[in-house]
Request: fold
Amino acid sequence: MIEIIDKTNCCGCNACGDICPKKAIAFETDREGFWYPVIDKALCVNCGLCNKVCPIENIGSLKHNDLEESVCYAAEHKNIEVVFDSTSGGLFSALADSMYSLNGYVGGAIFNPDFSVKHYISNKKEDLAALRSSKYLQSNLEGFYRQVKILCDNGEKVLVCGTPCQMVALRAFLNKDYENLIIIDFICRGINSPNVWRKYLDSFEERYGSPVVYAKAKSKEYGWRNLTQKVILANSKSYYETGSESLYTKGYLQTNAYCRPSCYICRFKGFPRISDITLADFWGIERFNKEPEKDLGTSLVMINSRKGLRYFESAKKRINCISMPFSSILKGNPALIKPIDPPKVNRDEFFEYLEHHTFSEIAERYAGFTINCKKSAQREIVQRLYRYYRLNGCNIFLLLKTMYINHEIGTGIFSICRKAGIIPTNHSLIAISKKAKIEINGIVSIGDKKFRHSTWETRLLVEQNAKLVIESDCKFGYGSDIEVFENAELHIGGRSRGVSSVPGSNCNTTIICAQNISIGNDVMIGRNVTIRDNNGNHYINLPGYKNSRPVIIGDKVWLCEGCVIMPGVKIGDGAIVGAGSVVFSNVPAYTLVSGNPAKIVEQNILWKY
Reply:
């Protein structure tokens, strides 16, 4: 009979419930959101089957395989759409497609409507989108083991993927190896609390007034390495939080506060692997592969069995892969052999506080889940000083000019050491009226250039009663002309922290603002782009004609080289305006437009920042 006295002795695999012939085992969820078996002693007949399938109790006898050393590859799917939608290089999708081509079944973790997670299996290829990508929290497998066994016994071809402990439990449950079954696990750092996850999602509704309808970890739209959490709300607005912004990710990686108790002494690390194939992110691939880094994700593939080798061959036509030495996989994936470190905060206190408070409140209580805040602040100052030096070197005149301009606009003469201020470069002309309103919340470089000694002039004009708002670090490339006329307002949004690219204009960009131009967060502007909300006081005898009309550019928009954005245009979030396009009418979100006049070429576009 299974009795859980110490929670570290239960990984929540649900296998004991599936094996029980009397249905005497139910699962109760604790305040952390993790479930544990509870025995109805009136129904239990002490058959001992629950003990026989427990992965923790039987890991010693189950931990074996028929290859002495795993065969390793770095790999990515040939289809870039699959890579974009995957956690790393899209290898699970390639392996699943091979199984679908055999009319087989594929099983793995999917989100429920409430964003809890369960295991699901089917032979429908359209289910792959839901199965793809890691969910990073505990998955419920009640009934799943029985389904897999029935399919295998009936001769169906089956591929399943889960955490190492879940897949060890599956081995124990089946009690024999099936030639028609491929078992995949992944390198697991630790399984997160469903309650913490739910509180985190609720925080979006608290902040933005709309519930979450879509969630994806490690969205590629800001690059694989930024560990970006993407959510879409019921109001159709998308939000992105990089690993350095997301309090959920920071809490997971920095405090180790909310993994399952068994994860801290995980018994399923090291070798041999019990699965046929192990998947993971190939962190550190750049040390071995000299091809240009796309930052879209590379998969580590470990083939652990002869059956896995044969099956992997069938998937190779869908992937690009290179053989890697076994020694190459350890440095970037310490979770392969080492359990997660103990929590850096009081875990009991953490979950007690979480019961009665919002996620935002608990993040604030634990200082934003930030470790070594002082060192981080010092690093930011050094980075800002380096950015200044890269732009202006040791030019004393430009240093004095910088101090004077920032004194005049109210950010302070030592602004380059702080989080807000303007850095004028050589050959930049800045004319800001004393009656203008300036709000700058980042370091703004005027005339940012790759060629320090270039004489290409850059201009910034802000006339009286005009308003210029810049939400974060920003750059105006050399040759740019930014003019904000009397009583007009130019608003430039922020950027995601951790993203290396600084939003702003490329070289020779023109922004002419006579009424209102609003540029959203993380907007990328190519060379020779023009944005204007006015026709320069030229009037046409057309009904309803206005000389100036506001321009609104949404978040994460890409304006390609030489495009022109005309007065009155609204560009939706995530849109791309093709090179040389002239935009006279509104552009829907997540569309690619091109031409003169610009027309929709593609819809449902995603792009990497």
